[in-house]
Amino acid sequence: MTLPPLREVIAHHGLTASKALGQNFLFDEQLLGRIAAIPGPLEGRAVLEVGPGPGGLTRALLRAGARVTAIEMDRRCLPALAELADAFPGQLRVIEGDALKVPHGIEGPYHIVANLPYNVGTALFTGWLSGESWPPQWSSLTLMFQQEVAQRIVATPTDPSAYGRLAVLAQWRSTAKLAMKVHRSAFTPPPKVMSAIIHVTPTEMPPGVSARMLERVTEAAFGQRRKMLRQSLKGLPGALEALEELGIDAQRRAETLSVAEFVDVARILS
Ligand code: SAM
User: What string of DSSP letters covers 5-63?
Assistant: First the structure.
């Protein structure tokens, strides 16, 4: 399928990048193809794409054979996306709206792929990983973040400055990997910082642990990350006794506890 170059699509539809909407577009079709390959084979698979913009990544997903549902809040992008829908009949459904609010209506398992502004990306990410019900409906997340945020998602206690709530949330019942670094010069306009794509797949949920309780424990522990656990977890009923039961030294700080240790503490309190 020959499509016009993305730069032409942007010029034709007057899609100047909006700062307010966090728009930094990708035009390199080879790079977009590599990103679309991260979730694995997509032939006939359902994909939720958030923030397709002019449709660079969308094209790559469609070429890989995916059935794409795309949510975009910038109305100016809709004509360009409608052209893509015509070029790939029956493969692309576009929903206009804010992905934090509109339902996508996809039935059955689906992959999620997105290149989003930082704040929206993080809010959606925590939403997709929270909740008591597991496994989730999605079978993988492939998400572009600022490199610093991507590092916080995949961090372990060996990287104490990056390790925190986001890492525990992403790793306690999922595998989170840094799939690809993307240089700032790949975007138009280039953002100030480097980006990276993380790939998350759900694993089995450890038994006997409430997601809400784990959040409460990490919130308290990392809320005062410089303090010893005996201080930061003081306000959480039963937490200090749980540490003792598990043989975890209360003089340790949050950033030294492994994800498994956080899960053990939350299990006793759940
Ligand atoms: N996917 C395109 C690409 O890779 O070139 C565009 C990426 S651009 C960084 C982010 C896109 O997300 C923009 O098109 C923007 O309008 C859209 N967007 C921002 N906030 C959104 C939201 N809350 N819901 C849906 N789309 C949003």
Answer: -HHHHHHHHT-PPPTTTT--EE--HHHHHHHHHTT---TT-EEEEE--TTSHHHHHHHH
